[in-house]
Design a protein that fits this description.
4 domains, Rossmann fold, Helicase, Ruva Protein, domain 3, two-stranded parallel ribbon, about 425 residues, 5-stranded parallel beta sheet, about 50% helix
């Protein structure tokens, strides 16, 4: 397969990851949800039946490999394009070649790597040729197709979501690479070192093989030792965190839901993951303020004050010291009693306001700054609550006449809202007397 001694010549050879690219399902690791018995992609491979698709998933999960295998099994010509390097001219050239092959009775699979890099007009250039069957389109992307691809293209393809490879699948990739060499002698590598490479690869088979290739170049003979692995992985362990799309929002969602679920440990974990991935701490601080209002509300109003103080504390201190302020607020919010009563009430009010017309303000609670306003009845009959018994004008209404009384805010039986609910019950009872 390869020789450790011969790695000095690799400048003229494809990378190890390309040399070891699987050509059959037997050597392909991961994606059981797509390649299990009876699954659509498995059937397409076994039956040699191509259809247009987009393969969406993290780097090193087999998108390009699957595209090649699909084309080979369907006995189709394979035309690779890179959206990073190609334009409409290249698309036209690929289509012209596909038309010639079509006239000869041969199918063509046009594979577009990093398809999200193509703009709308470039994506649209494929549409008529997908429609008339000149090409089978296979796109690969690490970005969410719903955000990055236009609807016209999405309507003509099927999207398959690939998952990050589990550590045991990456281990099998590494083990396969070490089974033999060009001179027939296996390469020795201790079990813990293989496992370390698999973990550092973080679900990316290509990264695992690139690290292995580097470790081999740093080794002597046919043994990869601890020193070589340590040097190879130094600075290579970078967790996935896409600041613009899914990883960003998924991890932010996980942190928010951990707080809502009163799990401070999980909240801190996701907080640390986002910091490690390069997320702006100020953005997280802003989200904690949202949590304090949306998920805690009046069950513990101190949470909102603490969250705002933490944001200000971070602004004054900066990273990394200021990050502790955010962590403190995050833990407090996770441990605080929860209520979304204000959030639910506000949403209900907004929905009703948008669905109704412009109901007039009742005359008795209108502003009456002038004699003209007073002569028109503005403020007539209004009772000043501070002058009433218990500071409450029993029976006085505040909604538009056409609406009648409404109840939006329903305090929960947690935290301070227990007391708020008791008080509101008394007030609402007197209001209807």
């Amino acid at each position: 397969m390869f020789s450790a001694e011969g790695l000095c010549y690799l400048v003229a050879m494809p990378p190890l990851a390309d040399q070891l690219r699987p050509t059959s399902l037997a050597d392909f690791q991961g994606q059981d949800h797509l390649l299990g018995v009876g699954q659509p992609l498995r059937r397409a491979l076994e039956e040699g039946a191509l259809h247009s698709m987009v393969l969406w998933g993290p780097p090193g999960t087999g998108k390009t490999t699957l595209a090649r295998m699909l084309a080979i099994n369907a006995k189709a010509e394979f035309v690779p394009l890179s959206a990073v390097l190609c334009g409409v001219k290249d698309i036209r050239a690929a289509v012209e070649q596909a038309e010639q092959w079509k006239a000869m009775g041969r199918a063509t699979a046009v594979f577009v790597d990093e398809v999200h890099r193509f703009n709308k007009s470039q994506q649209d250039a494929f549409l008529p040729h997908i429609e008339n069957g000149t090409i089978t389109f296979i796109g690969a992307t690490t970005e969410n197709p719903a955000f990055e691809l236009n609807n016209a293209l999405l309507s003509r393809v099927r999207v398959y979501a690939l998952l990050s490879l589990p550590a045991d699948a990456v281990r099998q990739v590494i083990d396969r690479a070490l089974t033999g060499s060009a001179d027939g002698k296996p390469v020795t590598m201790a079990e813990p070192l293989r496992q370390r490479l698999a973990e550092v690869a973080d679900g990316d088979a290509r990264r695992a093989l690139n690290l292995l290739e580097l470790a081999l170049s740093l080794s002597d003979g046919h043994e990869v030792d601890e020193r070589a692995v340590r040097q190879a992985v130094e600075g290579a362990q970078i967790r996935r965190f896409d600041k613009r799309q899914d990883d960003f929002y998924d991890q932010m969602s996980a942190m928010h839901k951990s707080v809502r679920g009163s799990n401070p440990d999980a909240a801190l974990y996701w907080f640390a993951r986002m910091l490690d991935g390069g997320c702006d701490p100020a953005y997280i601080a802003r989200r904690v303020v949202r949590m304090a209002s949306e998920d805690i509300g009046n069950a513990d109003p101190r949470a909102l004050s603490l969250a705002i103080d933490a944001w200000e504390g971070f602004r004054r201190l900066g990273p990394p010291e200021g990050e502790l302020c955010i962590a403190q607020a995050l833990v407090y919010c996770a441990c605080a009693p929860k209520s979304n009563a204000v959030y639910a009430a506000f949403n209900a009010v907004m929905a009703e306001v948008k669905s109704r017309g412009s109901d007039p303000v009742p005359a008795h609670i209108r502003n009456a700054p002038t004699s003209l306003a007073k002569s028109m009845g503005h403020g007539a009959g209004y009772r000043y609550d501070h002058d009433q018994q218990d500071g409450l004008s029993a029976g006085q209404t505040y909604f538009p006449d056409a609406m009648g009384e409404r109840v939006y805010y329903e305090p929960v039986n947690r935290g301070l809202e227990i007391k708020i609910a008791e008080k509101l019950a008394r007030i609402r009872g007197k209001r209807t007397d």
